[in-house]
């Protein structure tokens, strides 16, 4: 089974392979998933359910046994692996969804010796591009590997509507594409390994800045006597418009169905936004890029993080931070 | 002529009046225009040409005699006034387009004693909201007055496609509307007097911030190995998108027909952007609003302004400022 | 009396005059004081008490009658004036201590027509340099005028240990000097009119920045496991040292007798620091100077100002703002 | 020889030992030095020269053979080691002076298996506190280890007047002290392992911020008409004073013998300052500390770094960056 992995060079191999199939044409791949957390679990669930006809098996691993037990109990046919190495030894396609760079480094170190020649490794964790490139490089002589961080949050993971930003060769991207389709709606090729992460952190860094800028602008306008809805409407048809004003406005009452209109619950929590800002700023340190706007925004999010009662709010709470309204959420000592 | 001005209270008067007409129904208003500079001249020209059937006369004034002479020579029927007071004494509708708050204060001081009862004063200068409110208040017992700053630049002024952001009562807005239609495409009522200025500076402040944020993000992505066009494309379908990425991208070559693709010539020059940032930051001082993003952006534009060779570039040159590429434009001592 | 005022040109006059005397040598000047607020009252009191032998009279004015009544009651011989013009008509030396630029403009407008030829006007208010220069210019053909803003706070005003930063000609400075000595300890000539204000706001702008920088540094070190006193001690003998670390450390417990060690009560309240930052930033707008550090610090102080419960704290509370400890002071709605 | 290393527990051992001696009292330690770069070479030279009587041998290593050859040729008795492990195998006291965290990690990994039990390891590199703690922890069961980053630059290294900020146990500090005295003037104990680095980066982060703040303040004052020397003098006796105004003023001509007065040559180059800012900001990310001032300053230094012609200037060149005067140094493409 999967003998093709030995015989065919990764790059040549891809073009000839049909979607979801292994090279021999007769056998189906085994799929592995590592990391069954808040994001990973619904992603794995969609992958499990939507690829049933296209795979031979589904093995899962998580450091928390309970997460694995829960998954195998609710997904008939899913099998517990004993370690990342065990997943790598069994699976032809491995998706990882882990919290941070050190986790990804560790899991790839464990998988590297055991990985099946010709396998496909997809890392959907959001980590720094340098680590993404390093872990990919550590396995690319034996397998295809892509970084494929996501946007869309737990909601998108559950609904299977995530956006995947994929870094890797074109053949590796093409090979990963059908599996990612099972978990998302938009799969974008961003260039070579690491570029998925670059695209993700660039977008989120800009989001962190534009949200802070939108929040302070709305606050200023309101303090100067403007109606918030009218101000948003004017900006949204002018040169100041951005996603943070027209889709996710941070002022309570301006838009329905956004976190600002439900006490900043749900959405994209400050610690997650700040994590991404941190990754972007760290990358900017690596390449010595001056990013004064993101640096200013990042400090705001860290300041909010340090304030008891705001730690889990959606990042658009930066509006209330600047206006002083946030004190309603403060947890006093 | 214009006897209605005496008899009808400003607010009641409006509802009964047909567009472009004076209250009596038989007489047409005289139009005055003060400030025939880079913006004012094309605006006055459109107003002159498109309202010929709806007005009785057209008087103009500028502190530079040559500007007036040139206008009257090229617009048959336009008449030179000797001063702002002279314009005010003759015209039923007066549009002012001046460089800064002190100019507007001075012109309104000169017009106030001479203004025709029931006239309509439209100030299209971009100035601080406090001054806009003060000058309006100084004449509102005798006339209707609105602040109506524009966006769209010299191009929009020439094409007659400006956006007007109007502050004043609803009747005053309705009364100003047809005249503004002659010079622009989108006429937006922003609330009471001063709110046109508030909307304008809020939008432009946010624009200044999002452009700087977009520029640093593109620079980071490029330094990390991303193709600029691809990065822009990804951001433009994601949560980081803004006018500065999808309509006016600051990286040369990403979009055609924007200043970044023609050595940052034309467009919205750094001093103009910085002037608007300064107005916004000054307003933020007045109301004690914390605007850390705009404050950071403003310092960048001032830093650029202080650099010989960059003074007249489009504000999107902030991309080259951050990347170091700007040195190609530097004028050494 | 004071006939010399008429006969002697201001600049020549000064050199020949002995301290505290009028030019004739026989007559003593009348002193006027306008603005008996928190700072003005103790200043006026010291001036009254320490110059008894050197003056012929002492007239006072304040917009609050109660302040004047209280002063005249407790300072035997002090006489109530009915207006700034009345002070100007009677006094040879007039000190003003007012809250802001518009107040100074207004008082000087009232004094200008009434001012005694050859008088000396000293404005100790902290205002923007442009206004300081304008009001001085408005009276310099008839009198000597200096701007002489102070540092040292209410404590220094009471103890008579203020520092005066004086802008004006050297003769005017020399003439003002003895009167200022009665209220302060250090009298510094900073150059021409307005430069007293420039020196004051430059110093305070830098103070606002270094305090914020010191606060964030102490917070970082503490979070990284350093003992605060030890960290302060190391910095204070190294290149990071500044007044905010070695004289006014913002971390509670590091130094005794500073606001941080008494719940940030007393000292230099956030609104006063922010007022001075605002003046400096406004001046920086006027001359198009890029001041990114002060701009960042200013936003912090405005953010603190917007937070209920922190409005009156000493400005070193920025340490608790950044560390999250400030929530203990928050006043919830 | 050095049998005490086996028999005595590290912490108990120290108290009983006389300076410079090994525990037995009869034998002298061998000293090792790794990293003979710009800083390391003069440090090693001083250590070699001043401890001749107190040591049994001196072994050196550098990845550049030429650096080693040059050192052994000019320091009679110094012996080349073949690797960090070789140094560790021979020396009782090992000083490392390396460019960055990865270098230190690598050298400690190489030394760990070979290190003499009971040895003393002193790392004088400036690196992130987390790495400092990790490498110390990796060897503390067998040896004493301290982090001892320096301030004072190449000048201080040559003159033997460096300041060492030392992190480690008190006994380890006491044991390191005499060796550090041979290279520096001020040896400060900052607490446990890593705290030397914390103190260093906190101080330098604050320095980076105060220098930028001092520079922008001087620029503003000068633009407002103040004499630079007078402004510096006033600030230096007021609450805005800091090392960057009173010892290392960034405005050419204000002080003699500082980099600003020699075209910003020599001193502490922008890349070195930016490296330390980067370490501090990275540490701030680790502990989620909001450091808005340092973040703003860091972006300035990175912006300067990106500008051809400024890369090697002293960090006080930030004054010319803000004032626009820097264009005289620009290297055009």
UniProtKB/TrEMBL annotation, chains A, B, C, D:
GO terms for biological process: L-valine catabolic process. Belongs to the HIBADH-related family. 3-hydroxyisobutyrate dehydrogenase subfamily. It comes from Allomyces macrogynus (strain ATCC 38327). One of its GO terms (molecular function) is 3-hydroxyisobutyrate dehydrogenase activity. This is 3-hydroxyisobutyrate dehydrogenase. Residues 194-321 form the 3-hydroxyisobutyrate dehydrogenase-like NAD-binding domain. Residues 31-191 form the 6-phosphogluconate dehydrogenase NADP-binding domain. It catalyses: 3-hydroxy-2-methylpropanoate + NAD(+) = 2-methyl-3-oxopropanoate + NADH + H(+). Keywords: Branched-chain amino acid catabolism, NAD, Oxidoreductase. Signal peptide: none annotated. Its EC number is 1.1.1.31. InterPro entries: 3-OH-isobutyrate_DH-rel_CS, 6-PGluconate_DH-like_C_sf, 6PGD_dom2, 6PGDH_NADP-bd, HIBADH, HIBADH-like_NADP-bd, HIBADH-related, NAD(P)-bd_dom_sf. GO terms for cellular component: mitochondrion. Coiled coil: none annotated.
């Amino acid at each position: 089974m999967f003998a093709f992995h030995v015989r065919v060079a990764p790059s040549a191999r891809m073009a000839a392979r049909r979607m979801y199939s292994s090279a021999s044409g007769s056998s189906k791949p085994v799929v592995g998933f590592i990391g069954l957390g808040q994001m990973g679990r619904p992603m794995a669930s969609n992958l499990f359910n939507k690829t049933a006809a296209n795979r031979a098996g589904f093995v899962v691993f998580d450091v928390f046994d309970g997460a694995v037990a829960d998954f195998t109990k609710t997904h008939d046919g899913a099998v517990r692996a004993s370690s990342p190495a065990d997943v790598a030894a069994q699976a032809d396609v491995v998706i990882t969804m882990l919290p941070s760079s050190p986790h990804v480094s560790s899991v790839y170190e464990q998988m590297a010796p055991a990985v099946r020649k010709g396998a496909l490794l997809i890392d959907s964790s959001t980590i720094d591009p340098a680590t993404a490139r390093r872990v990919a490089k550590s396995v690319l002589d034996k397998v295809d590997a892509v970084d494929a961080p996501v946007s869309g949050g737990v909601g998108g993971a559950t609904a299977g509507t995530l956006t995947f930003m994929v870094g890797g060769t074109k053949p590796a991207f093409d090979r990963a594409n059908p599996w990612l389709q099972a978990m998302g709606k938009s799969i974008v090729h961003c260039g070579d390994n690491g570029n998925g992460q670059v695209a993700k952190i660039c977008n989120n860094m800009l989001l962190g800045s534009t949200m802070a800028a939108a929040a302070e602008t709305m606050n200023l306008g309101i303090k100067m006597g403007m109606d918030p809805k009218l101000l948003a409407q004017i900006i949204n048809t002018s040169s100041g418009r951005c996603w943070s004003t027209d889709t996710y406005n941070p002022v309570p009452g301006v838009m329905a169905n956004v976190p600002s209109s439900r006490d900043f619950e749900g959405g994209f929590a400050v610690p997650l936004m700040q994590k991404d800002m941190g990754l972007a700023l760290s990358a900017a340190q690596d390449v010595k890029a001056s990013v004064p706007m993101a640096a200013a925004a990042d400090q705001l999010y860290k300041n909010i993080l340090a304030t008891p009662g705001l730690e889990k709010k959606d990042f658009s709470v930066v509006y209330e931070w600047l206006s002083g309204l946030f004190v309603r959420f403060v947890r006093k000592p």
